[in-house]
UniProtKB/TrEMBL annotation:
It comes from Teichococcus oryzae. InterPro entries: Ester_Hydrolysis_Enzymes, SGNH_hydro, SGNH_hydro_sf. CDD domains: Lysophospholipase_L1_like (cd01822). Coiled coil: none annotated. This is Arylesterase.
Length: 228
């Protein structure tokens, strides 16, 4: 089939058509996206924790970081919660791997450690020193922090439990810039229907409850992100 001159532009005609097309697109670029501008990326929130953060006994999609991220997105926040949980980790372990975790370049950090300190009977003074070190290093980097508190199991005695709780209260007073969530497992600890058979780790329903309760303080944390 033959095409006439008016149907198929020649070599220079094609260039002119392409030039006009590019110019037409360019006319709309300033209104849609400034030249050189990049689409905004999600705010990166690192969750430094133990088996609760790691999602022990759960699928990755059921773990706390994933469910917390889902709730934040449902609430309109463009955020990515980075899971940095290691099962069995103590505050000492979290302190030792902090720099490694920060390689993810987070813009805010949730510190959710201390449960294993309580289970192992770590002296509260050591737990305090480790968490203080973590909070001070994050403050030096200018990173907003949410500190999630923890309670010791009752079998270690009332005196230990009281001193353990005071560890987090003291850190709260010394670091007023941090968002404080008194107890990570609030509303879930001790509830058989919300925990796995070991009665320590939340099941999927328990994780949803933790994420629901944490939503407001995490939203407060996001408000502290530079430019947030």
């Amino acid at each position: 089939m033959a095409f006439g001159a008016s149907s198929m532009p020649g070599r220079y005609g094609r260039r002119a058509v392409l030039r006009r097309a590019l110019l037409g697109i360019g006319l709309f670029l300033p209104a849609a996206l400034p030249l050189g501008a990049r689409a905004a990326e999600p705010v990166r929130v690192l969750m430094l924790g133990d088996s609760i953060t790691a999602g022990y006994g759960l699928a990755q999609a059921e773990a706390l970081p994933a469910r917390l991220e889902a709730r934040l997105r449902e609430a309109g926040a463009d955020v990515r919660v980075i899971a940095a949980g290691v099962s069995g980790d103590t505050t000492a372990g979290g302190k030792s791997r902090l720099d490694w975790a920060l390689a993810e370049r987070p813009q805010a950090v949730i510190v959710a450690l201390g449960g294993n300190d309580g289970l192992r009977g770590v002296p509260p003074a050591e737990t305090y020193a480790n968490l203080k070190n973590i909070l001070e290093r994050l403050k030096q980097r200018g990173l907003p922090v949410l500190l999630a508190g923890m309670l010791a199991p009752p079998n270690l005695g009332a005196d230990y439990g009281r001193e353990f709780r005071k560890t987090f209260e003291r850190l709260r007073r010394e670091h007023p810039e941090a968002v404080f969530y008194p107890f990570l497992l609030e509303g879930v600890a001790g509830e058989e229907s919300l925990n796995q058979p070991d009665r320590i780790h939340p099941n999927p329903r328990g994780v949803e409850e933790v994420a629901r309760r944490m939503l407001p303080p995490v939203q407060e944390l996001l408000s502290k992100v530079q430019g947030g």
